[in-house]
Amino acid sequence: MIIERVESGPFGTNAYLVVDGCAAMVVDCPQDSAEELVKLAKLANAKIKLVAVTHGHFDHVHDVAKLKELTGAKVVVHALDAHLLESPDEYGFGFTTPSSKPDAFLVEGQVLRVGAVEFCVLHTPGHSKGSCCFYFEKEELLFSGDLLFAGGVGRTDFPESKHADLLASLKRVASLPPQTLVLPGHGFDTSVGEAVAWL
Ligand SMILES: [Zn+2]
Ligand SMILES: [Zn+2]
Description:
Oligomer: single chain
Number of strands: 14
Bound molecules: zinc ion
Helix content: 10-25%
CATH class: Alpha Beta
């Protein structure tokens, strides 16, 4: 399995390309990332089949419509954040985010795959109602979206945030094996063990 990180957009949001064999998945798709992701997939001789959105905030979904147009990939998001894709809420930052439409909804406990690699959807609300993490148990890897960063946790001052939910979600992630690599929605990677030390 190959993972590439593309940091993009005005908030330095991470997109990830996950490749296994000739299949690829994208985790989040910030502004100006779609073409780069397509290029990286081509270099790996893989086809992007799935765009899995950790949550619906505009800086994570800006290029979803474009990537879908370029690749025909299926777009998945938790149902509670689907409205944010369809009519992006830009919180007064003055950006214009193209709307996109999910093809299916992510569900807690659901097992999805990239090529032959399986991962599990964890519904981890708090930063937004429909925030999800993607957990690759065998590979010891977690895409944490905006729940957990290297040295910080997700903001809960957005209209649909809930701090108590964020704390419960962090507790859940903290119970994963400490060596689990955490790939966040902003900044560099960390591990569950590192995060637990200061949580
Ligand atoms: Zn966010
Ligand atoms: Zn973010």
